[in-house]
Sequence to fold (259 residues):
Amino acid sequence: MSDTWTLGSRTLHSRLLLGTGKYASLEQTRLAVEAAGAEIITVAVRRVNIGQHGDTDNLLSVLPPDRYTLLPNTAGCYSAEEALRTCRLARELLDGQPLVKLEVLGDPQTLYPNVGETLKAAEVLVREGFEVMVYTSDDPIVARQLEELGCIAIMPLGSLIGSGLGIVNPYNLALILERAKVPVLVDAGVGTASDACIAMELGVAGVLMNTAVAQAQDPVRMARAMRLAVEAGRDAFLAGRMPKRLHGAASSPQQGRIQ
Fold:
């Protein structure tokens, strides 16, 4: 698609960001990423080998960083300090790349973000020169605070991580979009292609997902479906939907009709 978007200094075409966890194999991961047409792929540094474990399969062998933008994330971190250590390790492993996805969780059952620790970590990371994309709640006030700290993208949840419940609160997302001056991406909760399409129809810059693709019965086919859904939702947003009406309206004109 010729409709591009900007993330920091990067110009991107694909609005689908794909995670690399939970697949059956590295080969399946590669095929899904290709089917999705993703340019940015996320990597959980604490769970996936990108060089820190020399004796195991390396994700970079199938998804090389000269072809994809790797987005290391802090999945599994429950404090600002844990997240900071993980981001610093990722920067070392990726030759100084500053781009990271900050994610500080509140508890292992809901995986809801710990907003206080997220704000604390974001402030330090921005000060240290990181380009921070940040997973957060759908609170418009918190989203504004994270933007004011210097985060380059705000990533509110659509619903809980891995829940597949879709977009449960489109109204809060609309409030965030109304005020944001940086890209807003839906992160977490997408379960199927219609969820991705609905997110894009709201006007978000993109959608990040992992479980919806990796845990599908056919991950590669689902990745392709998600790509098409994101493109369709974006086109629908740009086209502008018809107004909703309480009553029906004829699609054919009344003037000149045969009596």
Remarks:
- Residues 219-239 form the longest helix (21 residues).
- The longest strand covers residues 131-136.
- The chain has a mean pLDDT of 92.
- The two ends are 47 Å apart (CA to CA).
